[in-house]
Amino acid sequence: MTHSPLFSWTPAAVVFDCDGTLMDTERHWQDARERALREYGLTAAPGFAERAKGLHYTECGEMMAAESDRPDLTTELTSALLAHFRALVSAHPRTMPGAPELVAEAATSAPLAVASNCPLEVVEACLSTAGLLAYFDHIVVPDGGAVRPKPAPDVYLTAARLCGAEPADCLAVEDSACGVRAAVQAGLRVLGVGPWPGEDLAESVDLWVERLDDPAVTAWACRGEAIELAH
Q1: Model-level pTM?
Q2: What is the pLDDT of residues 56-104, one digit of tens each?
Q3: CA atoms of 154 and 117, how far apart (whole Å)
Q4: What is the mean pLDDT of residues 25-31?
Q5: Closest CA relative to residue 81, chosen from 63, 61, 67
């Protein structure tokens, strides 16, 4: 890793992804995919979890069916996937390390939004359970029409507009390649979080950290100072 200075500015708005960024739900999606496939006697192809990360659940259902050579089961697998995910999230809600603290600090200086590929009711339920829902001015999800799911830029463009800010003046907080591509296409600056993604994806973000409770991120959020972080 190299070091580079970052963020001598205060974003006009901060737009967070939900799954894997604010909420520890990626494990629930993986379990839900496995359970849905087992219902129909199918197994995921090698590397499926990484390919599916960040996708809209309908696209994930289509991929599950296609890679199992059972396109006729697309509707059934998609429905089963969402049902299992909802049950798992309801039973085991959990925030990502540092997420509540960063959200609370960011809300003191800028409007906040969520841009997610999850259904609206799932996002609201997750954030409400975590005590975070009240911090967000807007929650944007695909609507089956004009607002397309990530990796299209629509959810981020819509979130920036609703916050009354230009995309270039907004910060996106993301954990997946799918989400980073959406934010970059929309013109937002990007804080990536999670395991080191490799040089290809890292070149698309302004900063990558392993966790949102990284001390330097906390310092920036609290004081708005220019900082140097692992990138």
Answers
A1: 0.81
A2: 888 899 999 999 999 999 999 999 999 998 888 888 778 999 999 999 9
A3: 11
A4: 85
A5: 61
Is 72 among the catalytic positions? no
**Quick one: pLDDT at residue 6?**
52
Catalytic residue among 19, 24, 154, 175: 19
Q: How many CB atoms lie within 10 A of CB 137?
A: 15
Helix, strand, or coil (residue 222): helix
**Closest by Cα among 196, 208, 144, 146 to 4:** 208
CATH 3.40.50.1000 fits 3-24+94-230, yes or no: yes
How far is Cα 64 from Cα 56, in angstroms, rounded to an integer?
12
Kindly report the average pLDDT of the chain as a whole number: 87
Instruction: Check residue 28 and give its pLDDT.
Output: 86
Q: How far apart are CA 142 and CA 220, in angstroms?
A: 31
* Cα 91 from Cα 89, distance rounded (Å): 5
- Partners of 4 in the β-ladder: 229
CA distance 66 to 25: 24
**Residues whose CB is less than 8 angstroms from the CB of residue 10 and which lie 6 or more positions away in sequence, other chains included:** 109, 110, 224
In this predicted model, what pLDDT tens digit does every residue of 156-188 receive, in sequence order?
A: 999 999 999 999 999 999 998 899 999 999 999
From 17, 24, 175, 214, active-site residue = 17
Among candidate residues 203, 209, 200, 204, the one with its CA nearest the CA of residue 229? 209
Q: How far is CA 227 from the centre of its chain?
A: 24
Instruction: Provide the residue ranges of all domains of the chain, joining segments of one domain with +.
Output: 3-24+94-230, 26-91
17 catalytic residue (yes or no): yes
